[in-house]
Amino acid sequence: MEQKYKDSIIFKLKSAKYHYENIHNVLSDNFNYDDKLVAISSEVTSFLLVYQSIFDILAQYINLKRNLNLNPKRLYFHDIVKISNKIPDLREFVHKLDKANEYINAYCNTVKHRNLIKVNTTQVHQTAMIGLGMHMGVHTYHSISSFKRNNRQFNMKPIPEYINETQDELQSAVEELMSLI
Known about the structure:
Layout: H1 2-28, H2 33-65, H3 77-82, H4 88-110, E1 117-127, E2 134-144, E3 147-149, E4 152-154, E5 157-158, H5 159-180
Antiparallel strand pairs: 1-2, 2-5, 3-4
Helix pairs in contact: 1-2, 1-5, 2-4, 2-5, 4-5
């Protein structure tokens, strides 16, 4: 059983990396507006759903390895956070991961009901080296809209920065937690 959880987590980390790379590929491609929005929204949502899944598999793995005797049929990562005093050597690490998981869970449970991915445009003044004066350019960037979940406000996040930060932080954090369990 233990190996099943380890294999699942390793597979999910590979899946997260796959979606992470696809997000960057889509952001750099010249899709039309609608196709690009659908592709980015699908990849960001898939990326975050994979991490949501990883957290719950980690809960199963911690429960098994530490003999916590929690009901595996209804066990989520937040359940491990609630009883983290029973695993003092993991408590700080579990709470750190729970912080990242708050946004991921809120996003995953909100995106089921509405699209949160937006294309933002800003006008950029650029100096033309040929000729006189300035001309207008348009810069587009993609973001996760601000949203509210359970009376808590979550701020807008630019996609490339948030995805890079999440992948860098969680990939290593999950691997480190697995080594401590």
